[in-house]
Amino acid sequence: MPDASATVSRALREAPPDRLAEAADRAIRARLGASRTDVFVADYRISGLWPVLDPDLPDAGFLACQGVAQRCFSSQQLVLDGAGDGRCRVYLPLTVWGERLGVLLVELPAGPSPSTLDAAADIAGELALALRAAERGTDRYRRARRRERLSMAAEMQWDLLPGRSVTHGAFLLAGQLEPAYTVGGDHFDWSVDGDRLTVTVLNGGGAGLSAALLTAVTVNAMRNARRSGGGLVEQAELASDTVFSQHRGNRHVATLLLELDATDGRVRAVDAGSPHVLRLRGGSVVRVPLEQQLPLGMFAETRYEVQEFSLEPGDRLFVVSDGVYAAAPGGREPFGERAMARSMRATRLQPATEAVGTVMRGLQSYHADRDLRDDAVVVCLDWHGRGGGAGGGAR
Fold first, then answer.
1. Taking the model in full, what pTM does it have?
2. What H or E segment, with its residue span, contains residue 180?
3. How confident is the model at residue 209 (pLDDT cuts 50, 70, 90)?
4. Are the beta carbons of 138 and 18 closer than 8 angstroms?
5. CA distances (Å), 97 to each of 166, 168, 174, in order?
6. d(Cα 286, Cα 265) in Å, to the nearest integer?
7. Which residues lie in coiled coils (predicted)?
8. Domain span at residue 343?
């Protein structure tokens, strides 16, 4: 099948952004002899995968696909599953630059050859890239992802995100917002530039739309400084001055800025508020000690200083907002004192992309599965070291 992926790639380029699934379906049927295809996309909570081509799939058929598709999505590995009558279903992860979008299902009339599987994997890669680009031109895939209506604030926050995961030869990074459909001000941002990774986590002040607007101003101010070549100090100071000029100290944003040198594990940090950094190493979870400086926008012309710490190959960092570590539902002790550390230790064998969900589920359980009372952000960074692979969990 040397030209199968090229045929699909051409079909995707020629298709309107809202018809990618149909274009891929026609091309895959023609080139691989498939009897059926579907595209499953992950919802905002990453709690399920939902069909794009066949949204009215009968419950029995959907549940049968869902379990295998979820295994493919979680493992990021191709999965084969018998479909009866000698047919075979091939599930392939739809992932681009480490961003997990969903799963491609290809049903074949017989067991596939290695060349067919290679062609199917190439097709999945082309489709993932096209889906990522198409979100600027259609709402179809966003509609498929949402299980309930987003609040206005949440709509803004999800559109402001850089993604939910990104991979590099030396690291894997993932993040998650909750409550996914009503999140207000908490947020994360990142950028990869060569061997430098910049990560910011914001503990937005207030609630609802006003919190989302404040976060949007802060994030874009830091991006403006970063994209103009400014380092962490310039990013923090421009954002602080911008927020102060708008609110005269009445509103401010607790923010943590990190910059990882992926070649040696050196991390530079500006701690401007309440997000906490915790390191998982050898089964032990410890908070990274940083001197806390003033939140962004609290006073005019606030100046910031950089601190440094180092990672060892295999280290995992968690950055969490106060909606995670300080959560104390029903007057119980804060989640961060014991339960959060247990949740983090439980992620040792998971990749960062799964680890953020594990910690969030631990937080939800701590709240007795009721809606969270505060916004919550979990960001997880695995540094593998120079020449390290991106396929494992923390040591």
1. 0.92
2. none
3. very high
4. yes
5. 6, 8, 12
6. 17
7. none
8. 150-383
